[in-house]
Amino acid sequence: MNVIAFNGSPRREGNTDILLAEALRGVKERAGSVTVYQLSTLNLKPCLSCGHCDDTARCIIKDDMQEIHERIRSADRIIVASPIFFFGVSAQTKIMIDRCQSFWAEKYVHKKPVTPGPFGRKGLLLLVGGMKRNGKNVGFECSEASVRAFFRTVNVQEHATVAFDNIDEKGAIIRHPTALSDAYKAGKLLVAEIPEGGSNK
Ligand SMILES: Cc1cc2nc3c(=O)[nH]c(=O)nc-3n(C[C@H](O)[C@H](O)[C@H](O)COP(=O)(O)O)c2cc1C
Question: Which residue lies with its CA nearest to atom 19 of ligand 1?
Fold first, then answer.
C-alpha cells in the first residue's frame, strides 16, 4: 500500500505538523511506511497556465513536482494537511494542487483518468485555523472545495475531513480536548482495509 502525505504548513512543529504526525501514527500501525512531502521545503513553481498539459497530459515545468506526480499516480491513500491562510489552504498547498492540472487534462481532455489500485484510492484532509467561528467557517469551506477538486482530479474516490478552528498559537493543538485522538483515529480509518500486519506493496 502506498500512502503519501502533503504538509502544507511552513511552520515546523506547528499545529498542522502535530496533527499530521498523529494521523500518521494511526496510518503506520497498518500501512508501514509513508512518504511525507514538506511542501514549504520543496522547489515547486506555480502553474503557468501554458496549455502544455492540454496537448500532452504532462507538465512542462521541471522541478520537484515530477516526483510528486509519479507518487500520486501510484498512491492508494493521499493525505493533505494545511493551515487556513486567508480563508483557504496555504499557498504551498495550493501550488501543489494547481500543478495537478496535468492530471485534470489527462482525465478530462485525454480521457485517461489515473486508475486506483486494489485498495481503491482514498483521502484524508486535515485543516487547522486560528479564527473562532460559531457555525459556518468560510476558511474550512473554501479549503474543502479546493482539496475536493484536487482529490477528484486524481481519482480519490472518497475522503474524510478533520478540521479544528480557534487554534492559533504554535502547538496550541496539543491542548485541544479531542484533536490528537481524532486525527489518530482518522489515520487508522484511512488504512482500515489493509490486512493486519499490513503489506507495503
Ligand atoms: C498568513 C496567515 C493567514 C492566516 N489566515 C487565517 C484565516 O483566514 N483563517 C483562520 O482561521 N486562521 C488564519 N491564520 C491562522 C492559522 O491558520 C493558524 O495559526 C494555524 O494554527 C497555523 O497552523 P500551523 O501552526 O500548522 O502553521 C492565518 C495565519 C497566517 C500566518
Answer: 168
